[in-house]
Write a structure and sequence with these properties.
This protein is of the alpha+beta class. It contains five helices and five strands; from the N terminus they run αβββααββαα. α1 crosses α2. It is elongated, with a radius of gyration of 19 Å.
Length: 125
Amino acid sequence: MTWQKILEGLKREGLVKVENGYIICSRCGFSVRLVNGEVGVAMARMYSHFLDKHRDDVLKIKCSNGNCMRLISVHLPEWMIRELERLVMEGYFPSRSEAIRVAVHQLIMSVRGGGLRNNMLVMGR
């Protein structure tokens, strides 16, 4: 993974912005100057800043191929966890996390597409 891809992912997550030749921390305004467009040195300094000042936030972020994800905690009934583990063991998904990501994505697409709008009362809305 290149620093450029990490920078793009952090920008998408709203953690940093790039303005007038600076990478700026969206949380506190700390900035690092891009010298001759060199992203690597600036991003190394910004990453060090995040570890020093926003460590808990950084540890909850996982970037892969320029896509950044944040860790969230979810309480699930035991039977759902068993079924998730079974789906992983049977090879449907590489991990429980991926199965949950797929399910949440499908839920969002269904709601945004109008498929669940009529059933929202059932879900407590």
